[in-house]
Amino acid sequence: MFFDRSIGTFALIFSLAVVLALPLHAREWTNAAGTFRLEAEFAGVDGTKVKLQRPDGRILTVPVTNLSAADQDFIRAQSAGPTPVVADVEEALLSANAAMARGDLPTANQFIAAAESKAETPADKVALADAKGTMSRLVAFWEAVEQGGAVASRG
Q1: How confident is the model at residue 8 (pLDDT cuts 50, 70, 90)?
Q2: Is 0.90 topped by the overall pTM?
Q3: DSSP characters for 10-27?
């Protein structure tokens, strides 16, 4: 009887040690070319870069654009909060523009998603396309700045 309880206790402790040693939300990340893979946990987004925590605890910061399309979709899903409630496309795009002006690209994306859900007329769709274009240019601008590249100005 003592022997049975000892084995049960050992099995429980061993199982707990194994479970606690594993990262809870780790996943395999792949670069855009599909040539490099990394097991890490999503630790957040900072601008155009994602933070990944390796099993050894170290945090890597990687440009989102360097990751596979599936990983980028995962990041968007993790980063997106609830879609804001807006009255119409105009309100959503005004809010998106204000967020872009503050440099708050995740919030701008949320308002663009809200505008997409309400866009019905051709004018709405043109305004939405313009907002998406502005967002793409802002992302490209910040990526160039972060990489220390020269940014050409229009004038």
Answers
A1: low
A2: no
A3: HHHHHHHHHHHHS-SSEE
Question: Average of pLDDT values for 101-115?
Answer: 84
Structure letter (DSSP) for residue 101: H
Of 68, 54, 58, 52, the residue nearest 23 (C-alpha):
54
**Percent of the chain that is helix, strand, coil (3-state, to 5):** 55, 15, 25
Is residue 43 a contact partner of residue 61, using CB atoms and an 8 Å limit?
no
- The domains of the chain, with CATH numbers, are 24-67 (2.30.30.700), 89-146 (no CATH)
- Bridge partner residues of 30 (DSSP): 37
Phi, psi for 67 (deg, rounded to 5): -100, 165
| Burial class for 61, CB neighbours closer than 10 Å (0-12, 13-18, 19+) | middle
Q: How many whole angstroms separate alpha carbon 72 and alpha carbon 100?
A: 20
Within a 10 A sphere around the Cβ of 97, how many other Cβ atoms? 17
Model pLDDT, residue 3 = 47
Q: How confident is the model at residue 89 (pLDDT cuts 50, 70, 90)?
A: confident
